[in-house]
Amino acid sequence: MKKTILILSIIFLAMALNYTYTTASSRITVSISPPSVQANMGDKITYEGTITNDSDNPVNNLITYISLANVTHGKEAPMDLEDWSADKAIKVDTIPPHGTYKGKWPMRLIDSGSYVAYITVVDKNHNTPVSSMMSHLNVKRVLRLNPNNVLPVAIGEPILIGAVFMFISFKRRNRVK
Fold this sequence. Notes:
Layout: H1 2-27, E1 28-33, E2 36-40, E3 44-53, E4 59-70, E5 77-78, E6 89-95, E7 100-108, E8 113-123, E9 130-131, E10 135-140, H2 147-176
Parallel strand pairs: 2-10
Antiparallel strand pairs: 1-3, 3-7, 4-5, 4-6, 4-8, 8-9, 8-10
């Protein structure tokens, strides 16, 4: 008897949690654009997220933010956006029934590799965050060194400084004689 009550309690709890998740996630949908980006290191891109209120009631007190994860083979890890983007979270006070909110996150690409970006919305009134689909981001490594500009300075500057010191010492020697 105790086993049956325990199993029925677990089933009821699972159904209640599933209902709560379905209710929270069916109220809000989140999308990210562009769905895929190919860019170079140093480029600036902007992700746009759309939060849609699918319910008949206004949605209040939302916090939405963008996340970035490195999916390059051997370097898989979530990324700290401190260097990539100055715009972190956006607070959305109210979205009217069946209304939308568009947020923008500019980002400067600082490292090469394969990444995924996604937008997460946290509703303070519900326990379940809602995330968008992932946008794939491939950042190609770009070497921005121009040896034609660097080499003359790297070689010419020490030669020029040496020539100036030799000229000064030669002039001093001639005065001493």
